[in-house]
Amino acid sequence: MSTPPVPPHPSLATLLRSGEPAAGPGPGPATGDTADAEDRMPPVVAAVDTGAATAPVTGGASPSFLHAARHARPAARRTPRWQWLLLAALALLLAVQVVVADRATLAARAGTRPLVAGLCAVLRCSLPPWHQPDAFTMLQRDIRPLPGTEGVLQVQASFRNDARWAQAWPQLRLSLADADGRVTGRRLLSPDDYLGGAHDPQQRLAPGQSAQVAFLLREPAATTVAYTFEFR
């Protein structure tokens, strides 16, 4: 009986070319080439789930280019102080011009007159006098027939300015009535009427100052028994 031929064993070079592992005993210790390949592998890093994307956590400091970008932000520009001062000066100048232009209206109000008066004292501007007729108080009054002249009445009166500011001489409204209360005559007298040529339009009655006036008036009717004064 003849023995079947035994196939020849492939050489090591043939196995390496075909990509098949060489037959031999079980795995042994890693060779030097394998250890070097493992050392060259990059380290595995853990991943953290942020809910949107998985980002590697390296545990080190942030990159230097992030610090450079953070420091490269432009600082907010501040308005120079002189510009604020110039704006405030222009606003103050505009307010002064408005007050001076409308000073007559503002001077007629008790709340704004002190401000306007102080401003005009500095700027040397004219200011209309205060006008408050009800602040004049009648102190004495007397009307009687002029002796020796029929139908002529002699009027004498004294009054005082009780306002906070100086006032011009007021107008006097004189009303005459008979015994039944019927008005028999009425006349509005200006300062020129009861002061005559002695009246100075620029003259003012200071606060608390009193004045006396006397003038003649033609009697409208012989039945006149009552009279009243009003300031206008």
UniProtKB/TrEMBL annotation:
Keywords: Membrane, Transmembrane, Transmembrane helix. It comes from the Bacteria. This is DUF3426 domain-containing protein. Residues 1-37 are annotated as: Disordered. InterPro entries: DUF3426. The keyword Membrane applies. Residues 1-10 have a biased composition (Pro residues). The chain crosses the membrane at residues 82-100.
